Structure formats: structure tokens, C-alpha cells
Amino acid sequence: MISLGYDALKFKKVFGVIYAVYLFLSLVVSMMFVSSVSRSPLPQVEVTVDSGKVTGVNNFSVAVMLDYEWERWRDSSTLRRLAEDAGFKLVAFYTWKGNSPRACSYWSESTKKGTFDWRDADSLVRRILEIGAVPLLSLGGYDLSSQYLPLGMATNPSTSLPYPDSWATYCAEWVKHFEAVRLPVKYYLITSEPFFYFGWTADLTKLRYYVELWNAAARAMRAVDPGILLSQDFITAKRVLDYWLNYGDDVDFLDFHKYDSYAVDGVGCCSDAELLRRAETTRFVTTSGGTYGVDEARQKWFNTRGKLLPVIDSECNLNSAWRDGTDPRIQKMIGAVWTALVLRMSILKGLDYSAYFSFGSYARYTQTGNGFGMINLDNNRPWYPYYVHQWLGNNLNVGDLLVECTSSSDDVRSLAWINNKKLNVLTICKVDQSRRVSIHGVQGQIKYYKIDDTISYSTAQVQTGTINSGTPLHLNGYTVILLQSDTST
């Protein structure tokens, strides 16, 4: 039996440890290799831009609706600055809700005169003009019941609507006032969502009563100022537009409201995938559900009246539910993706404005949602949909050239345009799965602005940086990213 010395025993132990470590590392590397071989690579998407091929000219500007937060917005320099920084060019507000700037405190049916205090309406309009936007006013709403009419205004028991001469005189007072104080208010909706009165499928008797009321108001208002622009927000419904072309006075723009879901859960609520499908279809294209798409509605009006009308989406959000809480997806990344898809389609369909409903709300609104706003009024911080508006509001002008931009996958949408000698490429990942995106046709250094789920929506931030052309983008699920590069075009 051979006896080993101390040094030899020590060497044997050390060697044994080293060998054990070697075997362990070999096993780990082997497992990593097997895992990498078995794991599928990220799906590849090719986005191709041809900045030399013009596909259209932009008409679109970003817009927003003020609801109950109008007074706080008017009185807060911080909130107004956020709106100005976003580049909103139209700000809409109501004049008939209980918490709206209702100028008329009492209406006399016998004299057809009202008692008015215009201070709130005037100050709000002035603040809107100061940020470089134009106002859009909604006169009257829902079913035009006494709840939404000036105190003292009577309704006709035969129609359940105000008497046309009284309503027309009231509406004309708004135009007279703004003309008298030299405030340039041009856009008016004569009642909001009249389908609450005549029904989603438009009962023809009630539709006739409503059109007669609308015509009376429009004639009285245009008699004061022929340059105002009037419409109502259900005009693209098939039965309404068909009837209107026979019996209604001219509208000056086609208008609609777009909400793609109607409940927080259960019937009326839709999945993420369905929500994003509707973002690109509902109100934009003709459906069997009873509404004309933008192109068809515009063409029908042109064929009958000989005018190619502007189009405005005067209220827009992914879900209209509010009684039991708002949709918690509104402010999250899927809400930003939905917003980006809607704005992209608005640009492609030639809309003038799409007004996001609404500017601000409180995170404590309900247990299930944060209201409808894009700004958290608890701390005046933006949620994700704000940044999508801000990017377009500051980098897309009326008259900018849209250029050819295609994507190899329906999972990723893209849009490209030239603004102030910069090529802009908006890229939207509409699946909650990672994608590897290569951008072709963009040269040199590319600056990017990105939002995704890597930062919580409650502390939403824009990620910025630069990449070299040819460098693929790793999109981590729901993502909206704006790429910019210099161009000599």
C-alpha cells in the first residue's frame, strides 16, 4: 500500500474540486445550447419605407374633449401647458351638462329670451385659443329632455323635443354672443348623440322630428354668421344619412363618435384582440351594423349635394362604460396602442380631427378604472395615450406628405411621413408578444421615442435614444415607437 504525502493529498482534493466544477459548467453550457436550439427565434417583421413615393397629403391634427375637468383645466397653467405641449389644434366641450359652462340660467318660453351669464364660456374659449387650438361646442345633448335644456325651456308633448322656434333662438344666441365679443367660435354640434332620442336604428318618425329641430337651429345660427360650421355626431349612420340627404339642411362636416367597447366586463366588453381590430375598422369602414365608413359617407354626400366634406371624430375612447367603473385598459399600453391605431387610421382616411375623450381624470375615479383621461389629475402626470398625441401633435402638420410604408406582418402597423425635412416612421406592435422589427429605407442615425410595458403605466415615461440604420428593433409586446431621421426630400 502506497502512502501519499500531505502535498499529494492536497493536490488530489483541489483537482477533484476543479474537475467537479468543470463537469457542472459543461452541463450548464450544454443545457443552454439545447435550450437555445429548441427555443424559436423572435418572429421577424420587415417595415419598408419609400420616402420618394408620396401616397397622400395629411389633413389631420390631434384634438381633445374637455368634460367635467374643463374648469380645472381652464384655471391651471400646468394643465393648459400640457395641452399646448401636445399640440392639440381643436378642443371640444359641452354646454349642457350639469357641470358644463351652462351660460343660460333661465329661458322664457313666452318671450323667447334667456338670462345668460357668459363668463365661464368666454374664459374657457379664450384659454383654448391661447394654446393655439380652436373650440368646438356641443349645444344640447342626449334626448334633449328637460334635464339637458335650459331651465324654463318647454318641450312639445307630441315630439318630446323643444319647440323648434325656441330651440333655434337659443342656439342662435351663442353665435350672436361670440360674434359680439369677437371670439372666433366656428364649430358647433347641434345636440350630442341624438340616437338616444330616435334610437340606434333611427325610428323615422322621431328622426323627422329631430331633423326639423336641427334645420330650424341651423337656419337661425347661419342667419347670424354664415361662416360657422355645423353638424351632428350620428350623421354617418346609414339610415340617418340617407334620410338627411333628402330632408336635412347641409352639414358642414361629417361627424361621429367612436367607442369600441361598451362595458367593463360581460356583454358589451371585448377582448384585447377584438378591441384592436375595431380600432382600425369601426366608423372607418362601412359595416353591416348600420354605419357608413368615412369614404362611403363622404362619397354619398358628394354624389347628392356636390360637396366633399371634412370629417371629425368628436369623441373617441376605447370604452364608453362608466356606471360601474371605467375600463382599466384605457391608460395602459394597450390603450396607447389602441389610440395609435385610431390616429393612424384617422390620418389615412383624411380626417381633420379626432378628439380624445377626455383630457384628464383622477386615478381614484373608481376601483376598476382611472376615468377616461390621458392626464392623471391627482398629480398632473401623463398616462401613455398622451404621448401618442404629443408625438403626432409636434411632428405632423397639415400639408405634410405621407409616403409609402409597408409592414410584412399584421402584428405591426406603420405609417411614414415627411415633416420639416425629417422622415417620421410611426410603428405600432399590436400583439402582446415580442417582435424583431427591421426598418428598411431609413438611412443614417435614427432617433427614437418609445413607450412600452417595461415601465409601469402609473409612472409612464418616454424612452429615447438613437440607433444606426439597419439595426433591428426589439419590441417588447405592446409598443408604440416613433422613428425620425433627416432627409433631403
Task: Explain what the structure shows.
The chain is α/β, with parallel strands linked by helices. It folds into two domains: 44-54 and 402-486, Immunoglobulin-like (Sandwich); 59-399, Alpha-Beta Barrel (TIM Barrel). Helix content is 33%, strand content 27%. It is built from twelve helices and 24 strands. It has helices at 6-38, 70-75, 77-86, 119-130, 164-180, 195-198, 204-224, 238-247, 272-279, 294-305, 333-348, 384-395; strands at 44-57, 61-66, 90-94, 104-108, 113-116, 134-141, 155-156, 161-162, 187-192, 229-231, 254-259, 311-317, 353-357, 360-361, 375-376, 381-382, 401-407, 412-419, 422-429, 435-440, 445-452, 463-468, 473-475, 479-486. The strands form five sheets. Strands 22-21-24-19-18-17-1-20-23 form a nine-stranded mixed beta sheet, covered by helices on one side. It has an eight-stranded parallel beta sheet with strand order 10-9-6-3-2-13-12-11. A three-stranded mixed beta sheet has the order 14-15-16. A hairpin with a 4-residue loop joins strand 17 (401-407) and strand 18 (412-419). Helix 5 (164-180) packs parallel to helix 7 (204-224), helix 7 crosses helix 8 and helix 9 (272-279) runs parallel beside helix 11. The longest helix is centred in the first third of the chain and has 33 residues, at 6-38. The radius of gyration is 28 Å and the shape is globular.
